[in-house]
Amino acid sequence: MKKKIKIDSDEYIVDPETANDSPTDNADVKTDTSAADTADSPLAVLEARCKEAEDKAEAEHDNFLRTLAEYNNFKRRSREELTMARKYGSEDLIIRLLPLLDNFERGLKASEELKDFDALHGGVLLIMRQLFDILEKEGVKVIETSEQAFDPNLHEAVMREETSDLPDGTIVDEFQKGYTLGDKVIRPSMVKVAHTP
Asked: Most exposed among 32, 38, 82, 187, judged by the fewest C-beta atoms under 10 Å?
């Protein structure tokens, strides 16, 4: 039974029973057909298109494998960089804090030799200022509390004091300083808040 095959705008009639027969199996097939006739036959066109599709699929598969390998390498490098950033991300800050540790050691040694409380006090104040300078450069700021209105986003009320000297909700005292890092509160201030009786 012969079938019609359409390739692009051309139609071909192919007999499936004889399409795969070799010239030795089929005496009716002419063996002296020209190369042009063979190239234009429907089977040759189909074989050429099939070969072209296979080549394209193989190229696409190779491209996919190459892209997958690049993606896996990118993921591995990203993971390694993240691990290194976590491990050594604070290195710069630590390097800037080490001189403070040196100053503490020198101050303690000098205070043991001189037994001078005022000198020790002055040395500790100097180190504290150096520490605040380093923290400010990192974006750390002290949360103001003196006579400020209580803000639950910035302050943690641990006590209330009944007073008529200050407006209700005003901070009376600070027990522990609070700090922000950029816009984020990293530790709220612990405060005593005024309460009007």
From this structure: 32
